[in-house]
Amino acid sequence: MTLGRQKKKCVIRLKSGETLTLPETGDMIDLAQVIRDAIQRCGITQYQLNKITGIPQGGLSAFLAGGDIRMETASKLTHVLGLELTENPDTAPRRAE
Fold first, then answer.
1. pLDDT of 28-61, one tens digit each?
2. What is the pTM (predicted TM-score) of this model?
3. C-beta separation of 29 from 38 below 8 A
4. What is the C-alpha end-to-end distance of the chain, expressed in Å?
5. DSSP states of 28-51
6. Helices (H), the chain
7. Helix (H, G, I), strand (E, B) or coil at 63
């Protein structure tokens, strides 16, 4: 019997108490997909999100299409969309001593 690596699920708790369960892709969670899903659930447009957060719509669009995002920007987005972004100390990079 061969055991393959079983994909874990990630549970994201919204501030409302509702939870979203997402499959992990390897060791990473697709933050852009989480943000896209939250935008859809909130019924908000990228334009409205730009006006609320001050994040340029072009930068938001680029991120949602697979581009990079700064942690400060991701934190703004998750806060406005009712998500909580936290660091996992078990997987965070460590300094060489």
1. 567 888 889 889 988 889 999 999 999 999 999 9
2. 0.61
3. no
4. 42
5. B--HHHHHHHHHHHHT--HHHHHH
6. 31-42, 46-53, 57-64, 71-80
7. helix
